[in-house]
Design a protein that fits this description.
Oligomer: single chain
CATH class of the largest domain: Mainly Beta
Largest sheet: 4 strands, antiparallel
Structural class: alpha+beta
Number of strands: 7
CATH topology of the largest domain: PH-domain like
Shape: elongated
Helix content: 40-55%
Number of helices: 5
Distance between the termini: 48 Å
CATH architecture of the largest domain: Roll
Radius of gyration: 25 Å
Order of helices and strands: HEHHEEEEHEEH
Length: 194
């Protein structure tokens, strides 16, 4: 947790609650999103450099300035697209604490949705790794099933999904045992009062 010292302030940790894991999407997920934009930008730049050699009169043409302007505008739009993709993908964060799972999902540039669930409400956790790329790079999805209002949390394209699943299940089982111990203690206290 030394990599995110202020994460507790972001999610408002409770007394005696520890942040155990902060999870972002896998690096390949953001790379896959940005690869198309990078390829298109590379093609535009190479096209701009090659165009005068293919059409020698192009540099003297009145249309050259218009073509360069359109290419530059398109590169600027690609840069903006890449920035928005990075914001959307990188700022999707899942935080596992000793008491709850917190899902912070970026919805555009200026909107964020935060939801959380208590580990004691977790009913099932499933990891899903599909395809050769995800298997080789060890990333995939994790689904946390609850009986609460938010029925299913979806950790999208996270690294080492099996370890995340195991961590949530282990913490959930511990939380269920704590709830059971607390209920038994309350029942015994109620019996003594009679």
């Amino acid at each position: 947790m030394d990599d995110c010292p202020n994460i507790g302030k972001l999610v408002g940790t409770r007394e005696n609650e520890r942040v155990l894991s902060v999870i972002h999407r896998h690096w390949f997920d953001i790379g896959a999103h940005l690869a198309g934009a990078a390829l298109l930008a590379f093609t535009l730049v190479i096209g701009t450099l090659v165009l005068p050699f293919v059409f020698p009169t192009f540099g003297d043409s009145q249309h050259a300035a218009l073509v360069y302007f359109i290419e530059t505008l398109f590169l600027l739009l690609l840069w903006l697209y890449a920035f928005l993709v990075w914001i959307d993908v990188w700022f999707d964060v899942w935080i596992i604490t000793s008491e709850r799972v917190i899902n912070i999902e970026q919805k555009g540039l200026f909107a964020r949705e935060t939801s959380e669930l208590a580990l004691s409400k977790v009913q099932d956790v499933t990891s899903d790794v599909e395809g050769i790329v995800k298997s080789v790079l060890n990333y995939g999805d994790v689904f946390v099933q609850t009986a609460a209002e938010e029925e299913r949390f979806h950790f999208r394209n996270v690294p080492d999904p099996v370890a995340i699943k195991d961590l949530v299940m282990k913490l959930s089982q511990g939380a269920h045992r704590d709830d059971l111990d607390e209920a038994v203690g309350l029942l015994k206290e109620h019996e003594r009062e009679k």
